TrEMBL record:
PANTHER family: STRESS RESPONSE PROTEIN NHAX (PTHR46268), UNIVERSAL STRESS PROTEIN UP12 (PTHR46268:SF6)
Name assigned to this protein: Universal stress protein
Organism: Bacillus halotolerans
Pfam families, A to Z: Usp
SUPFAM superfamilies according to UniProt: Adenine nucleotide alpha hydrolases-like
Organism domain of life: Bacteria
UspA domain: residues covered: 1-148
Protein family according to the UniProt entry: Belongs to the universal stress protein A family.
Amino acid sequence: MFNKMLVAIDGSEMSAKALDAAVHLAKEQQAELSILHVGREAVVATSSLTGIVYVPEHFIDEIRQEVKKEGLHILENAKAKAAESGVQADIIYAQGEPAYEILNTAKEKGVSLIVVGSRGISGLKEMMLGSVSHKVSQLSTCPVLIVR
Ligand SMILES: Nc1ncnc2c1ncn2[C@@H]1O[C@H](COP(=O)(O)OP(=O)(O)OP(=O)(O)O)[C@@H](O)[C@H]1O
Ligand SMILES: [Mg+2]
């Protein structure tokens, strides 16, 4: 039923659980598995004095490169973990708004299942779902598996 799957990971414990579930399912369903990580947009600080801080372009590029390096590291680890279970997954790195990138990648790849964790890095305990898993489950046109 699920021949193409996409799992989104942010490096959190809950997304590691989502990865485990996705790998397990992909193996069982003999499905293709893609692992996606969305790098954070560069954070720009504001000055309390003027309200404006000018950040040189090269500095923003440097931050982007650092964020990308960290993201690729997360993805390579996940790929190795999948391979340990006999699943050859492909990895995708994107930058932007996570929910949008997850939905867009799912659409582009024509996946039949998206797997996410119920919460992620920020992990507020009192909240049922994180904003990314909430948005993805609300807006996705294909089934979404939320792992907790
Ligand atoms: N940057 C990301 N790249 C890929 N997947 C992500 C990313 N952020 C979140 N996810 C996916 O969404 C799941 C839920 O994370 P989410 O960000 O919604 O929760 P949170 O971090 O606890 O709360 P919030 O970000 O709303 O403050 C994660 O387990 C992961 O599967
Ligand atoms: Mg989050």
